[in-house]
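Re-run requested by the PI after the first attempt was lost when the workstation crashed. Everything re-entered from the original request form. Ligand of interest: calcium ion.
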Amino acid sequence: MRALILITLTLLVAACGNPGPRRGAPPGSMDALGPYKAKFETADANGDERLSRDEVEAGLPELLPRFETVDTDHNNLISSAELSSYLEWQRIVKAPPQKAQRTQ
Ligand SMILES: [Ca+2]
Ligand SMILES: [Ca+2]
């Protein structure tokens, strides 16, 4: 009986308590923005967690030439998810290629 209770408790803990493997910040999380988080929040003048073209021009002008690229759903607003996806993509593109050769 005691073993049955233990097994039941173990299964319950496994079912409820295991959040699965962590993959960093969830998509759209402000944490994924890294150093851009503060810039995004500062540029977001009306606090709707999205940047209009005017807000980008005033607060993140370096992003303005890439506005259409970052605004993937073309709603003329850049969400934190769109910006973090863009930054992640930039990080991958700019990463130096892995060298397969070994030094002896
Ligand atoms: Ca805004
Ligand atoms: Ca958008």
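Saved to the shared folder this time. DSSP finds five helices and two strands in the chain.
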